[in-house]
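User: Second chain of the day. Same drill as before.
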Amino acid sequence: MREESYVAKNLILPGNATAPVTRTKRIPSELRRRKINFLSEPNWYKRILWRLKEDSQFLRSAVQLAFVLLCIWIGIEFYLFLKWGMSAGTENFVSRPPGVEGFLPISALISLKYWLQTSIVNTIHPSALFIFLAIIIASVVLKKSFCSWLCPIGTLSESLWLLGEKIFGKNIHLPRWLDYPLRSLKYLLLSFFVWAIAGMDVPAMAAFIDSPYNKIADVKMFLFFANISTFALWTIIVFMMLSVVVKNFWCRFLCPYGALLGIVGWLSPLKITREKSTCIDCNLCTEACLANIKVHTAGRIWSDECTSCMRCVEVCPVKNTLTMKTSFVKQTIPNWVFGVLVVGVFMGVTGFAMLTGHWDNSITKEEYAKRIQEIDTPLYQH
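Assistant: Same format as last time:
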């Protein structure tokens, strides 16, 4: 019987110590995952479809690229809309894209609480609420998958550390005594926002939602980056440089959105599960993990840092050893099905908002023109 061997590295020893112990385990041919030669398919479109089905990371990269292009398209449309508004109507009018509200998390949080307490979907930033709901629902069902499959900031962060790995050969892994305190920062930021919003009653939330500032919060956000200060620019540059050498620096240590989704993701029935009886301790899963989780020592991945990126599943050389499944149904979720679910949940919730008339806001073209012209007045400071 033909077998394939793998060498286990950095085995965990008693007392949580690590040592360069070498041990080889052989994979019987019936347990070895088949290696697919996608180039054997001569038709390019069939080859792409085949790879989308069989290669989770190719599928994830395709979804990431599509979402980044969508965000760029929204940005261009919003720029043209704002150009019209700043010109006092002399430029050609371009409709404001509602999707821009996905970048207003504070307004979305307030809208969510307002909706839960009043059953009213506010008409100022309704798409912000439904985009936020789509992300939350996706996290409840599919763990913290938004971060590694859809989030444009997550995609940028991943691209930066991959670049650093290519340049320097590896990324810096911070020691536990420093990693844990830094990871707590995003939870402190989340706690601050939750505390601030928790103290708002219904009249206060209604006043904020209908305030002049909130009505053009998306315009203020765009202008912040378009006319960025030297300090803010250098802050972003520093974060990007840190992300080159430290894997997912912003996402791991500072993103309050990620902190919230990590907590919500604990509710997800779907988790990466390791079959201990067939695991060969090759450590490939741990090396591939975006969140530096010791996958090769776990039974089920409960960590709030897991983003369900499926990298560990993809690199595992043994059939059905690392899989995405629930604890109560032993049926494995195929990688392509998981990717389709991530996109499907997001599109389903936002599509529902469009079909029910909760996507476009109620601010008229004339009101936008007036408010954009007076945006530098004290009325729009907050």
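Residues 56-86 form the longest helix (31 residues).

User: Great, on to the next one.
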